[in-house]
Amino acid sequence: MRASQGRSAGLGLALGSAFAFGGSGVAAKPLIEAGLDPLHVVWLRVAGSALIMLPVAWRHRDLVLRKPALLVGFGLLAVAGVQACYFAAISRIPVGVALLIEYLAPALVLGWVRFVQRRPVTRAASVGVVLAVAGLACVVEVWAGVGFDAIGLLLALAAACCQVGYFVLSDQGGEGDDAADPLGVIAYGLLIGAAVLTLLARPWGMDFSLLGGSADMGGTQVPAALLLGWIVLIATVLAYVTGVISVRKLSPQVAGVVACLEAVIATVLAWVLLREHLSAPQIFGGVVVLVGAFIAQSQAPKAASGPVAGGVPAQSGAAVATEGELSAPHVAP
To answer: Cα separation of 32 and 14, whole Å?
Structure first.
């Protein structure tokens, strides 16, 4: 019963995280169209969130000595890496293609769990990934305007690998007496990500006066500061908090597939708020993604037949030593 309740709570948090992340583009696009550089919007998003989470970082300052590799890995991969690689990719290849490649991450997570951690995965999770990726291809209409750019494709794949780091590192260290508090990990990840993005975005050249004006959202003038507040508070702080905790309650592979709903949510919100209408293939793809996510989360991961391979270096250099079972205990903030 407790495991079932934990899974239900984890699924709800994962859906909430997907909704929060999915709303970032709807709020960011009007700011970009108003004159802000996309990379500057990313910097505002991460730096503002880091500032809000600063008291949390101070409260969990012991993590700096206890889990330095985890914090650095989360900041470089889950925060700065995903953002920087994705925006670099869409400067060379269509947004839809970049988004599809980035959301190959759930399949890569399954590969990590199966071949690196040496844990079996359920058939349901595998089928769910296949359906989710196929549905995403319809949502982003990948067949429209595809052009081969090796560097752009590699950058999009790098964003997918960084997203794998997000799911794996969110699961890492969630058990035992030495468990890392998820809020502390997020706080320091945002601080490190903000520092890295400051070097990439060079915000001192940004026109801050644009934030005092308004931006057009589907024909309605909305204060730019309000849009930025949504991006920081909802699409970043709330999204990361619910996302990391959901991975702790579910598992990296299941939470990763549910996260594919972000693309569907982003498309629907763009339809409602930005008047970007959906085509029939996009609607069909959204249904397929929903089906894939439901199948993937419908069964718990199989118990490992042997000891979990401990000390395996993650992409950040942190060791993955958690079994990540569906009923893994949640570390309360």
So the answer is: 28
- Distance from C-alpha of 132 to C-alpha of 248, rounded to nearest angstrom: 22
Q: Is 235 exposed, middle or buried (0-12, 13-18, 19+ CB in 10 A)?
A: buried
Q: What is the largest CA-CA distance in the chain?
A: 59
Partner residues linked to 222 by β-bridges: 215
Helices (H), ranges, 23-149: 24-33, 38-52, 54-59, 63-66, 68-73, 82-89, 95-102, 105-111, 123-139
Positions in the chain whose pLDDT score sits under 70: 1-7, 94-97, 100, 145-148, 172-177, 251-253, 256-257, 260, 263, 293-294, 296-333
pLDDT at 231: 92
Question: How far apart (Å, rounded) are the C-alpha atoms in residues 87 and 22?
Answer: 16
pTM of the predicted protein model: 0.72
Do the Cβ atoms of 261 and 290 come closer than 8 Å?
yes
The Cα angle at residue 328 between residues 111 and 46, in degrees rounded to 5: 70
Which residues, other chains included, contact 108 with Cβ-Cβ below 8 Å and sequence gap of 6+? 160, 161, 164
Q: Which two tokens stand for residue 217?
A: 């959202």
3-class DSSP state of 259: coil
pLDDT of residue 115: 78
Nearest to 82 by CA among 234, 189, 230: 189
Backbone torsions φ then ψ of 243, nearest 5 degrees? -65, -45
Residues with Cβ within 8 Å of residue 262, at least 6 apart in sequence: 18, 21, 22, 103
Residue 69, burial from CB neighbour count under 10 angstroms (0-12, 13-18, 19+): middle
The residues that bridge with 60 in the sheet, in sequence order, are none
Dihedral angle sign, alpha carbons of residues 93, 232, 48, 207: positive
**C-alpha to C-alpha distance for 226 and 223, rounded to whole angstroms:** 5
